[in-house]
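A further point concerns the way the authors explain their paired sequence and structure data. An entry of this sort, consisting of the sequence and the corresponding backbone structure tokens, reads as follows:
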Amino acid sequence: METYKWPAAKAPIAEIKPKQRILHGDTVTDDYYWMIDYFKKGPDSTATIDYLNAENAYLDTMMSGTKTLQANLFKELKDRIKEKDESVPVFKNGYFYYSRTEEGKQYNKFCRKKGTLEAPEEILLDIDELAKDLPYYAATGYSVSPDNKLLAYGVDKVSRRQYTILIKNLETGELLKDSIPNTEGDPVWSADNKTLFYTSKNPKTLLSEKIKKHKLGTSAAKDPVVYHEKDKSNYIGVGKSKSGKYIFIYSSATLSAEEWLIPADQPDAEFKVFQPRIKDVIYNVVALADKFLILTNWDAQNFRLMECPLDQTERENWKEVIPHRKDVLLEDVEGFRDFIVISERQNGLAQLQIRKLDGTEHYIDFEEPTYNASVGNNPEYNSTTLRYIYTSMTTPASIYDYQMDTKEKQLRKQQEVVGGYNKADYTTERLYAIAKDGTQIPISLVYKNGLKRDGTAPLLLYAYGSYGHSIDASFSTSNLSLLNRGFVYAIAHIRGGQEMGRHWYEDGKLMKKMNTFTDFIDCGHYLIEQKFTSPAHLYAQGGSAGGLLMGAIINLEPALWHGIIAQVPFVDVVNTMLDESIPLTTNEFDEWGNPKHADAYHYMKSYSPYENIEAKDYPNMLVTTGLHDSQVQYFEPAKWVAKLRATKTGENILLLKTDMDFGHGGASGRFDYLKEIALNYAFLLSLENISK
């Protein structure tokens, strides 16, 4: 096998401009702090762009030998996607809504038909046309007025998640003059068809701070504030109950929550608090016709379900419906007129309980050893049909309609893999690694049949491990490009997620965050011990908070990994959490801690990737970011790479790719994002000396 030859190019060297940070008796010199200045518009912003462009040019040179491979991978990935496609229609308020894509087009068309699927099509938004000639375009929050005549939606043309709400007259096709800037893109109609509620963002920190009310035909600059969140650690939002009777304001942090409501037909009423926030108590409200359901962790680590009368919402009136269970996490509740659907998690696997309001209950059966099942889009309150989504690492995403009264299910659509796919050619398994403290860590993996368990197979291990966000086993057409070339793909369900219950999250946050990193490392060792792979063929990938994971594991045990892909990585933890002008910082104190407190400062400094770079051999690395990223801003990975390049030993490859047009989520088109996947795969395949 011919070894891939990396070009002998000279890597960029970032300028050193020392800046001292003195806090809690600790002095730290940051040589690359100046890179923050692009958004601060300081004198060095041009130097920052020059450095990012130099790193992009270096990557292009180093990956120049993979141009053909990248092009072939892109075509291969794109060819598996059905270009002309249509979503399963969803019925709401007299109309069937769906989206469809056309051959060769990047975006979709949002459409509806009145009463029956045989009715004429109305194209509500043609995103292909709206996004024409723009490098980025995202539309979100589609909200049709109760009289079906107006469509409100949010638009972001920069990828900073600062949406402008626009309103379209669906009878004339014209846009109203109303334009509401700097929002979350979440318009909610009141029952009068002329009042909108929405979340307004702080233009500097991008925090969701206020809920405002907009009357059609008035200036958005004069929109009144109906709710102002004073706690900067809380996220807020606004929505409407499925029944359409209530408008809710949500305010939540990691450890507490609060909701406010008004009747949807009284848009000028004053919002009333449902239950004032209580420290360490989280709750979420679902409105039924004659009562409220409350999902809460009050005296229930894994949550329980309560109910209360419509006119007595304080906690002393809550009555238990489903008690707390130590082995079952109660995640969500979906309300219908005659049924409720409870999303649960047991032994790390999702399950759906159907409960009739008369008290009878049953579960939907799922058969595979590792999978993901979730409630789909169910906007119609009076329906007896549940739409849910099922997938596994070998089963393409499948949309089912389930009759909750008769227990009959109908497969409405399964993701088509163009060019053919045979599930029987692949094997999926669920394994358990033993962490250093004895905890069993689930691993979901998939590989093509015929794999030799002799340690020679390349393996890509993925994880996230933060915010209680569970990563479930699911199907990916993109992964087939690795599986068909001999790779094993694995997901480590590490602490910091919530796969095994609420304790799984609490044992991987704040002063227990190190468990997230050591769990992942222990999963890597286990896969090597089981001879799925070896250190010469073991790769890891993670993005955002999962990019923090990548940065931590290479500092803790660099020799375990042959290559790392870190996407939009959160790697400068201390500096970011100290700067409250950075978007999202204050929202994250309950997740990472506040470094203004000495114990939190020293603990997060002990694992922050940027703070712990040493002169040692690091794995081969590909780091990606976006200049307009509002979640993890570009300067974190840029500083990290600059410091790694100046400090590391050895000859392993270190590459930084900055997308100058996009942000946290990458490209907006349905094919453009495949170019980054092709780059990632070409990087891995080159390290494995696989040229085709």
